[in-house]
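Re-run with default settings, no changes from the original entry. Doing this only to confirm the output is reproducible before filing.
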Amino acid sequence: HFFAMISGIGIDIAHVQRIADVVRRRGELRFARRVLSTSEMRDWKQGSNESLRYLSVRYVQVNSSILNLFD
């Protein structure tokens, strides 16, 4: 059986300027494809004025999940 358990609690900080630099260099759509699920992509495309913030939050969530899976 698989039992999920909390291995730790922490705070993840996104350096939005660094993410903005990557988005500027590589393109917003390319970055979005790497960090968003299909449903998140739909939400992102429907848009808001806080696109960079949305992408930054999702990037931190994906990064944190991957780090925790392989820790």
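DSSP finds four helices and no strands in the chain. Residues 40 and 47 are 11 Å apart (CA to CA).
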